[in-house]
Amino acid sequence: DARDKREKEAGIPPAPESLFFMEQLVGNACGTIGLLHAIGNNVSKGGIEVIKDGFITKFIKETKGKGLSPFEIGTHLEQSDELDSLHLTAAVSGQSGLPSEELKKTDPHNKIYHFVAFVAKDGYLWELDGRRPYPRRGAACTGDGMPLLKAAAEAIQWYMQNDPENIQFSLTALINTATDVAEEAE
Questions:
Q1: Active-site hit among 37, 87, 114, 141
Q2: Which residues, 6 or more positions from 152, have their beta carbon under 8 angstroms from its beta carbon?
Q3: What pLDDT, in 10s, does the model give residues 8-60?
Q4: How far apart are CA 7 and CA 16, in angstroms?
Q5: Is 109 a catalytic residue?
Q6: What is the pLDDT of residues 109-119, one digit of tens each?
Q7: Taking the model in full, what pTM does it have?
Q8: I need a labelling partner for 149 at 20 to 30 A (CA). Which of 64, 85, 173, 174 fits?
Q9: How many CB atoms lie within 10 A of CB 152?
Q10: 19 vs 55, 111, 122, 152, CA distance in Å?
């Protein structure tokens, strides 16, 4: 989009190697990709516990820090029979139905019902959208200066201002405790 072009022309530096990011090659899995982005960038901080021998742990160990491109990580996920089985089980047992064929025709790029993750990494907010070939760097975001919550809110406001009629969005946060949110809001 136009914002991507402006960022490339402005010479925004590439994402740090420590940032876990993948392209979404699996259809209708943006929620899964968003969670993998959030967990993959925070599991080493000790605040997120995952099942030791579970899919997420194995996937992150197989891909994170291995020198793979976002496309290669996405391909690894796409080829996972285990994810396919887990994703299908979760999708059919959830409270909402799968997207209709009509919705797929009217919204082929999943812009209405789409998930992205915002994470703080190496001093910046990063918007991780698997539909893009690379992560988007946001505002400076440190523990001392602008906290994650404030930086993410500013990034989300950009979307709201550019599509003010659209009210079809929601937010989810992975946090250690409610105290963390209260401290950041102060």
A1: 114
A2: 118, 125, 138
A3: 665 666 678 889 999 999 877 888 899 899 888 887 766 567 778 888 889 98
A4: 16
A5: no
A6: 555 567 889 98
A7: 0.76
A8: 64
A9: 22
A10: 20, 24, 8, 17
> CA torsion, points 24, 30, 34, 36, in degrees to nearest 10?
-60
- Cα dist from 179 to 4, 10, 79, whole Å: 36, 38, 39
- d(Cα 81, Cα 87) in Å, to the nearest integer? 10
- Judge whether 115 and 34 are in contact, CB under 8 Å: yes
Do residues 116 and 129 make contact, with C-beta atoms less than 8 angstroms apart?
yes
Please say if 114 is a catalytic residue. Answer: yes
The three state secondary structure string of the chain is: CHHHHHHHHCCCCCCCCCCCCCCCCCCCCHHHHHHHHHHHCCHHHCCCCCCCCCHHHHHHHHHCCCCCCHHHHHHHHHCCHHHHHHHHHHHHHCCCCCCCHHHHHHCCCCCCCCCCEEEEECCEEEEECCCCCCCEEEEECCCCCCCHHHHHHHHHHHHHHHCCCCCCCCCCCCCCCHHHHHHHHC
The residue assigned the tokens 């102060």 is 186
Whole-number Cα distances in Å, 171 to 40, 61, 63, 115, 149: 19, 27, 27, 9, 12
